[in-house]
Task: inverse folding
């Protein structure tokens, strides 16, 4: 190591991730210095409340009351932002850091999903770079793998489970036959869900991460409007039960793929074959299934959140920044690919849940609508006690077009015997 | 990209991996140049037979009859060795390349397992580096993950399935109730096993890869003598059957871990709980289960061999070399850890298969020996027709010490009623 070279960082945000990052930097400083070939110096830190009890001694570091002032300091080479939120302070910090010729390191997926493309641009114009391995899938080195290990591959597809909250809820519904509502309460109690879980359960957090991977794999400028997003709030305990009986588990899946020059980006619940690796991803774990044209299929599984796994990736990025490792951070630009596939053009199997008022001929009228729309059936389950008026009908189709399914469902939903609306889940081969 | 900068490689070996590497370099040259920031030039190639039909046009490249002459050429920056074998040409090429101030890139696990430490040393003395991502687990970026993504982690343990041939054979025995011999014949027919499969089925290839990971994770100088190695040739169809009945699958597992300042390196068959991710790794796939102190558990699954997955990693390494990315290539040096744990000090569960001449009291005499040695039992299966003289007794123990098991087994094997020797398989929680 050249001791004359140093690399000074300013750390903003000392919540659980910020504190874990500081601790890891302190624990591993010799190793980190050796790996980066520079002396890493934690020059100054900034957070909301200096006096909060953090189980870590921050008095040895320069304290900066204003995070933005930190980003303007001349004696700092990189800003590590662990504040969160797509706008507000995080955004200001990112732009201020780059304007002031600093590398920018973050775990903030909302920020990168919204401004990542522009920040890349601004940074590379200044011969700088931004780093955000921790923003997607925690400690799983997925960004590094796309940009480095698979650097020479055309990425055929990415399938992923990227939201630990949803995976925890779906796993709990599967293992303990809980309703969505009960599983959500449990997830909140155990710290797997936030007080307001909307971002997670509606699939938005997953979509943020998906567009980041889409940027790296396909050079697709992040745009949430291009992503079909459907959360898990409509999944009922019955869906888990019937899916299981049909040989499937339900997961919230992110998909990014390039097919016939069209990008296909979507987040939605999906039935995955029981016994597949995907179906076995339990609890709050994350998983990424990457297919490259040379690498073939690769699977990565690990903790997608949590202070220590996130800190692990942040510190790896600090070393990248210290080494000015810019190629890790660039994305594939696939020319002539501007078009996105519409969800209605999807072809695949579908699971349909219907609640009907059980009169003679109900099933016949439903299957005849499906038949008229060219949809053939793999399995049908009709259940309920003789005495019950309302019964579930569960249908698993063969491959068909989503447009046809939608047409059929519109007709079926208008049948007199139908109670409420039918509910569709796509079946994916992962 | 700075067009004035170029990086010239000499490629030695044009078998399936060499040809795939050349093809991938040609296909992705623009992308590779952009990522490496240099113009990558395939300056010259060398292989056994120039005129072999390769489905690839090699006439546009300089042909060098002598591979060693290639390694001495002044106009070459890196040698890519895809020849194989721990000694002979591969070894000469490696040392010649470094002596002549060239980076050295290889997919050769036997070479790196034997000379990797010394080659690292020689290379770093010249401010060069050696690269071998392709030597372990094909396209899975496991070396990159240990050295980069998990750079700031203390590696707690590595568990891995690193030999596709063995995993194919064990999967076939499991799925089709084949004997080891029949599964091996099938594996040879399908190209999953070589004509002489000794290296694979005896666990030696796995041990090579294990010591490479051990070098990177713990700075442990590769030494096959320090590794307990046991292959899969003694596994019978009955073991698969009974393991399955007890709720387990059998896999050939590589383990490297640091426990109380002692290194534990071993390769042996193991019972893994059915339903675990490990037990579900089918066919010729590889899997690596890494646990870091901050990252927590990470799992990587992919194709461990094959021309294209291997080429994917080789080309990624060519870019690392072009960028002189040396930190990716260094290993953790854990001071004061020189001691290795002996296999006899292992504590865990054991599966024991015994074939006995069924006389009254046989089981009683066996269990009494186990009891005398402090070994308590989880399950016992005794099977065979009334009419059969010889019956299998299958025992699953609770946690116990391997020394005690060995003592017990020695006594049991000397019992009159025992036919042949008993066979042990360790149970691992992966």
Result:
């Amino acid at each position: 190591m050249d001791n004359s070279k140093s690399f000074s960082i300013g750390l903003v945000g000392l919540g659980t991730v910020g504190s874990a990052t500081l601790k890891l930097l302190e624990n591993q400083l010799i190793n980190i210095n050796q790996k980066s070939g520079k002396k890493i110096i934690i020059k100054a830190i900034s957070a909301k409340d200096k006096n909060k009890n953090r189980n870590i001694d921050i008095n040895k570091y320069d304290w900066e009351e204003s995070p933005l002032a930190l980003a303007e300091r001349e004696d700092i080479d990189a800003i590590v932002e662990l504040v969160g939120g797509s706008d507000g302070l995080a955004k200001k910090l990112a732009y201020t850091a780059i304007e002031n010729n600093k590398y920018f390191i973050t775990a903030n997926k909302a920020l990168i999903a919204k401004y990542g493309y522009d920040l890349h641009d601004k940074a590379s114009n200044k011969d700088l770079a931004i780093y955000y391995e921790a923003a997607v899938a925690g400690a799983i080195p997925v960004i590094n793998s796309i940009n480095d290990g698979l650097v020479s591959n055309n990425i055929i597809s990415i399938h992923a489970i990227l939201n630990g909250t949803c995976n925890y809820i779906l796993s709990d519904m599967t293992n303990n036959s809980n309703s969505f509502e009960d599983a959500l309460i449990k997830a909140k109690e155990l710290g797997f869900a936030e007080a307001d879980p909307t971002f997670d359960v509606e699939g938005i957090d997953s979509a943020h991460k998906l567009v980041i991977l889409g940027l790296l794999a396909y050079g697709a400028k992040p745009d949430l409007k291009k992503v079909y997003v459907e959360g898990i709030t409509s999944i009922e305990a019955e869906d888990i039960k019937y899916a299981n009986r049909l040989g499937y588990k339900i997961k919230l899946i992110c998909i990014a793929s390039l097919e016939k020059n069209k990008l296909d980006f979507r987040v939605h619940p999906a039935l995955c074959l029981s016994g597949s690796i995907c179906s076995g991803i339990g609890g709050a774990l994350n998983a990424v299934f990457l297919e490259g044209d040379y690498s073939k299929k690769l699977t990565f599984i690990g903790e997608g959140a949590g202070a220590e796994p996130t800190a692990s990736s942040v510190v790896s990025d600090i070393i990248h920044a210290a080494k000015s490792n810019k190629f890790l951070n660039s994305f594939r630009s696939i020319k002539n690919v501007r078009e996105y596939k519409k969800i209605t053009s999807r072809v695949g199997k579908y699971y349909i849940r219907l609640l009907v008022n059980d009169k003679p001929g109900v099933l016949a009228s439903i299957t005849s609508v499906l038949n008229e729309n060219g949809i053939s059936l793999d399995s049908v389950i009709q259940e309920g006690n003789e005495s019950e008026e309302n019964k579930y009908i569960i249908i698993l189709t063969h491959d068909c077009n989503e447009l046809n399914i939608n047409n059929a469902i519109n007709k079926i939903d208008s049948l007199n015997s139908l109670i409420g609306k039918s509910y569709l889940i796509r079946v994916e081969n992962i």
About this structure: The first helix of chain A runs from residue 16 to 27.
